[in-house]
Amino acid sequence: MSTKVLLPDDWLEHLGxxxxxxxxxxxxxxxxxxKKAGKKIYPPGPLIFNAFNKTCLKDLKVVILGQDPYxxxxxxxxxxxxxxxxxxxxPSLQNIYKELKAxxxxxxxxxxxxxxxxxxxxxxxxxxxxxxxxxxxxxxxxIGWENFTDQVISVISSIKEKVIFVLWGSHxxxxxxxxxxxxxxxxxxxxxxxxxxxxxxxSKPFSKINSLLNTELDW
Length: 219
What we know:
Radius of gyration: 17 Å
Helix content: 25-40%
Structural class: alpha/beta
Strand order of the largest sheet: 3-2-5-6
Oligomer: single chain
């Protein structure tokens, strides 16, 4: 993990020291051990920090917080809830698209789950855990990533103004203590099939974001 290739300069200015801390060195050792044991890790190495490369800190307006990457082949590419174009939409993303249509009347292509266009507008698509082993959801929980992403959220909270944090589900909402009250929080149940009908559907997050930004994002 060379700090020269991990993050763009504006992120690196505030997060570079994290890569010298013991927890990050332990995390790197765990990833190397999993690879040595023949486990496939998603997303591929160059895409682990894709969210940071797609949304500069200076341009960040919205944070959508996910949990961990998709654990199937060809799905994860470093942006929460997103999959590369042409990959079948996972159920949570299908539900996000359903709510987008109900909220704003925008129908998305069912074979395009790539959310890079959102990231380009300042929507930071962050998972709290940045890697996963193939076929094993949450397999890299509690190995150090949460320490790093807690620091990411704290940096955003401290140096930015009036960021909109979109927190779907209890895991994302557990990060609320890290967010200063100068920011906005939009929260609801998670869009997964297990919880979407308990309040995610009908929560209108996209129109709320547009209203808070006083602009119409290209969803």
